[in-house]
Amino acid sequence: FFSLSLQAKMSRPVQARRLEGIDKNIWVEFVKLAATYSTVNLGQGFPDFPPPAFLKEALLRALSEENHMLHQYTRAFGHPPLVKILAQFFGKLLGRDLDPTTNVMVTVGAYQALFCCFQAFIEEGDEVIIIEPFFDCYEPMVKMAGGTPVFVPLRPKAPKDGKLMSSADWQLDPTELASKFSERTKALVLNSPNNPLGKVFSRGELELIADLCVKHDVLCISDEVYEWLVYDGKEHIRIASLQGMWDRTVIIGSAGKTFSVTGWKVGWTVGPNRLLQHLRTVHQNSVYHCATVAQDVVAQGFQRELELYGKPDSYFIQLSKELQQKRDRLVQSLDAVGMKPIIPEGTYFLVADISEFKSDVPDVPDSEEPYDSRFAKWMVKNKGLAAIPLSAFYGEAHKNHYNHFIRFCFAKEEATLKAANDILQNWKREKTSP
């Protein structure tokens, strides 16, 4: 019996080849560090303030009413009330008639929407253009589908007159972008407003991308989860609304960012049926179905927002105003202590230059770990303040070019931002005291 049990141990490799090299994840590492050491977590991108009262009330109603079918399966590709209102809402924004059953699909957060896109469209030999810095899951998801990521960086231009840099100062080089397209290019991933930088792509920049996508017959996977979180009167322009782009674009959205409920994991895709039919195939053979009650409540949230569209009472308008104030508060805190913030035009995030603080964490020559990663780990362990290194949002070739920045999340309660400011002020005092 003993010898049989020894023989029963597996010796063959069990890991699928598609998982090779993508097992590390920045969030697993930094979430654990933050939980262990931080007193203030400005790392992960979720609000620590409550969602809007109307949404919580709708959830309570959904749970207490007699409609017990909200606790059962609904339509696999989206709860009928939710796809109906999303088709109405995005039809209005895009100026098109959308069919709820063929032009909209509900997913388990925007994350699963991205996964469906890469699995549905990308295969061995395909190239996918990714603009850096990028939300970190794009690269492993492309590789898992068998594709090759091709990176093109936003390049910062120093502002004049010693002003603080804005995310608008980070721009694509048109020649460099054009050089990345080839006959192997299957798709481009666009994220506007961009996480981690907070950049809102201008109409001119989007037209440049759109022209290249049309010229090379390339798909666009447009991650627009922060579409309502734009500041300083900026406008979020949907690339699918530009000439020639509807037919080749999948728009991705998220109730988590739209209604401050990241734990509900309700996302969606909007696009032409010729693209979404393939997403439905991946969806039905992976998760199959998303939580019915959460979809029902999100549908009620959108119904309210459609009625209040463009009015001061709209949650979308109120939230962006509130977050703009929080952004300005964190910009002030960081600037006052010598961390140079890059003012974001949108999202939950701002990136800050830590060059002035390099004396706190000495360089390690020939270290494989980027400097900002070591700095962020040191900061959470020694100062109790959690942030994310910007190098985590770059491909291997550019990790060390942008390794003196860290990303902070300002979608936090006043008390959290005040506690972060206190840490920064104490740190500054320690640095300047003899």
Automatic annotation (TrEMBL):
Its EC number is 2.6.1.64, 2.6.1.7, 4.4.1.13. It comes from the Eukaryota. It catalyses: an S-substituted L-cysteine + H2O = a thiol + pyruvate + NH4(+); L-kynurenine + 2-oxoglutarate = kynurenate + L-glutamate + H2O; 3-phenylpyruvate + L-glutamine = 2-oxoglutaramate + L-phenylalanine. It is found in: Cytoplasm, Cytosol. One of its GO terms (biological process) is kynurenine metabolic process. It holds the Pfam family Aminotran_1_2. Pathway: Amino-acid degradation; L-kynurenine degradation; kynurenate from L-kynurenine: step 1/2. Its cofactor is pyridoxal 5'-phosphate. Keywords: Aminotransferase, Cytoplasm, Lyase, Pyridoxal phosphate, Transferase. Residues 40-420 form the Aminotransferase class I/classII large domain. One of its GO terms (cellular component) is cytosol. CDD domains: AAT_like. GO terms for molecular function: cysteine-S-conjugate beta-lyase activity; glutamine-phenylpyruvate transaminase activity; kynurenine-oxoglutarate transaminase activity; pyridoxal phosphate binding. Belongs to the class-I pyridoxal-phosphate-dependent aminotransferase family. Homodimer. This is Kynurenine--oxoglutarate transaminase 1.
